[in-house]
Specification:
Layout (H helix, E strand, L loop, with lengths): L7 E2 L1 H8 L3 H9 L6 E3 L2 E5 H18 L6
Antiparallel strand pairs: 1-3, 2-3
């Protein structure tokens, strides 16, 4: 896999990078829940945008998934 931060990855490469099923990644992309661009019939992902999304999502999950109040 490419290691440059501005790399553009395919659905296969991104699924491997995120360690999720391609079907899950397709669903996230189609729903606009992950930064992606469709080029013709193919989805493409900028690694730098995905890394920023992961940081933001991780922080959001921590904020939302903390201890429940009694």
């Amino acid at each position: 896999m490419k290691s440059e931060p501005d790399a553009v990855l395919t659905i296969d490469e991104m699924a491997e990078y995120l360690k999720i099923a391609k079907s899950t990644l397709y669903k996230l992309a189609q729903e606009g829940r992950i930064p992606a661009q469709k080029v013709g019939r193919h989805w493409r992902f900028r690694k730098a945008a995905i890394d920023r999304w992961l940081e933001a999502t991780g922080q959001h999950d921590v904020d939302q998934g903390g201890e429940e109040e009694a």
